[in-house]
Amino acid sequence: MNRALDRAPEAFGVDPWKARIDRVFARAIALPLFLAVGLLALLLADTVYNSFSVQVVRADEGPGQTYPFRLSADEILRRELLAREYTGEEVQFMLQDPTERRVLFLQNRVELMWLTHEGPLRYVVTGLRDDRVADFSLVEGLRRWEELKAGLGEGERLVLNPWLDQSFLTRTPSRSPLTAGIGVAVLGSIWVLSLALLIAIPVGIGTAILLEEYLREGTWNRILEVNLRNLAGVPSIVYGLLGLALFVRGLGLGPSILAASMTLALLAIPVIVVTAREALRAVPESLRQAAFALGATRRQVVFRVVFPAALPGMVTGVILAAARLIGEAAPLLLVGAAAFVPFMPTGPMSEYTVIPVQIYLWISMNIPEFHRVAAAGILVMLMVLSGLYALALYLRNRFRREW
Asked: Which pTM value belongs to this model?
């Protein structure tokens, strides 16, 4: 009886050694995945940790005081200017005149600190010429908080500084890390990405419809398909060289937003074509045949039956292409993206910078605080990418159809 049981797995076609090898192989595949996820989580945690610091800052003018949470930015600046011994008339003029007000907010950063020597959640005003006395990591700064608080001198303040805050998202770049912001890079990325998609979407989706619905068979279809798949795998730096030769120098556009958008559009078109063709192929052939049987023309079948059914897949592909474009830095550096742009772009021919290039500039700076500013910029970029991927996943699940 026992011998029969021992031979039972072999009798039913189950080899114990093969099953054991399968389990070992499955674990060997899962191990690199878990390791990669763990390393990514560690990298993200390190970036978040570096975006906080404890600082002692000495005000260039005034007593370096903090302000209650309930006050508005105008009221905070009014009190700060009065503390710097400006007269009431001068303060009123600076806050009401549009030019003076703009300069005032550019030179003074009003930000909410989580913890200060005067209490939690208080505003501080940081000027361009304020001096950083000391900068500590989050753990070390909190451990030595009382010691640092007791050693504050005149005009100095102790703060727990979250480098990523509302003012960081809206301010222009600065030579001082205390007042630097990513607002210009965010607006530049919006300009470049919007124009690139405006160019790439009609060309990419139109090409996909042409190849999948009108040129399904033939030499042209095979030639274009091979070239498009090859172009989708070309390194982005090659597109940067092409954009430099064709748009920046050939067409005389210079280092402008339009040249950058056209370069990124070339990078996005093959990706959009491939994803759009897959979405069109997912539409059952029976829908086309039913429409033709009812007397519809090819144009009506394509644009009233097939295209609406494939649209969710196309939109998902466009969003994924946009997520790739927003993280590109190499081609934009070649076509003239400036590392330091102190003003907001106003049109397609403006000088510009984008989020990856701005982060690259901060990381390359010698001042340690700029590395914390770069960590905050990386978090902004990760949030944008996460939002795009989440939107693509939502649209895919929301409008997915089972044929």
From this structure: 0.83
